[in-house]
Amino acid sequence: MRLLTHNMLKCHVKNCTDPDKQYPLRFKDVQIEQIEYEPNEEFLVRMLPRIDWSALVKTAKDLNIGIPGSMPEDPASDQDFLQKLHTIIMETHITEGSMVCDGCSHEYKITKGIANMLLAEHEI
To answer: Could you tell me the domains of the chain?
Structure first.
């Protein structure tokens, strides 16, 4: 699972009591793998408005990944920034572990790079 995907996931458990803690999901006991991909600058620029930067920074810090604390004024024209962003959101993969909701402590398992976001019937 890429960090770009993680940046868009939140807990949907019915009894999750604190909506402010449903996002971002916290990683637990994860294995990280770097998989190189050809950068697509056009894609990155289109994704910039959709990325929750503060959530990405929090997640990156939790995983000990260096990331700028804020976006540059004109991120689309900052090649160094776009390369770092590409490495973080596209090339960093979580292959095993889980994501935990800080609101209800529900764990979403990650196996072979795929997050299981399915809920049991009583959680829906």
So the answer is: 3-119 (2.20.25.10)
